[in-house]
Every structure is written in C-alpha cells, then in structure tokens.
Design goal:
2 domains; about 120 residues
Length: about 120
C-alpha cells in the first residue's frame, strides 16, 4: 500500500506542477480567460482546450488502426465484388479525421465560450 500511496501522491504533485506552470506560461496570452470579478483564470476553459488537444492527439494515434481496417475491408473478396463499395470504404478515414477534428473544435469552442453561459 505504501507504493500505491507514493504513486498517487507523485502524480497529484505532477498535475499541480503542470497546472501551475501552464497558468504561468500562458498568462499574458490568456487575458480573455480571466474572470471579470476576481481576476483569476477560469480553469474549466483552460482544461477544455487542453482536453480538445488531447482528443486530437488520441485521434491521430488511432488513425493508423482505421487505415489498416479499411485496407482489410477493401481486400475482402466478398466486399470487393460490389460496385461502389470500395469508393465508400475509401471515405472512412476521411470521415474519421473530419469527425475527430470537428469534435475537438466543438469542445474547444464550447470551453472558450464558457460552457454555454
């Protein structure tokens, strides 16, 4: 149990250090992210933008899997006999990429606008 407690404490301190470093680094650029009454950063907005970047990175990491699966589907002899099927299968990576970028853009836009406030 001591090792688990150490790991939890270590990652908690890493997250707080990263959060403090991020706020200090981007403070001059994030003037619009300050609360008008207290002057403090609205961390929900910053975390929303970070989440959208993480979403894009995870989407790009998973893109080779999508490409491999579409190649497998194209090489399947049962699917290749139908007219137009390969053209539709070729659109799947494009639709995946557009969907990931669209979702990340929506998350970032919602975060910047303040979650619909």
């Amino acid at each position: 149990m001591k090792l688990l407690d150490f790991v939890i404490a270590f990652f908690a301190s890493m997250v707080s250090d990263i959060k403090a470093g991020f706020v200090a680094l981007f403070a001059p650029f994030a003037v619009n992210l300050r609360d008008s009454e207290t002057g403090a950063f609205q961390m929900n907005q910053i975390m929303g933008v970070i989440f959208s970047v993480i979403l894009v990175v995870v989407g790009l990491v998973m893109l080779p899997l999508v490409l491999d699966q579409t190649q497998t589907a194209r090489s399947n002899s049962y699917i290749g006999n139908f007219a137009g099927t390969q053209a539709i299968i070729d659109l799947i990576p494009l639709l995946y990429s557009v969907g990931v970028l669209g979702l990340a853009g929506f998350v970032a836009l919602t975060a910047i606008r303040g979650g619909g406030k």
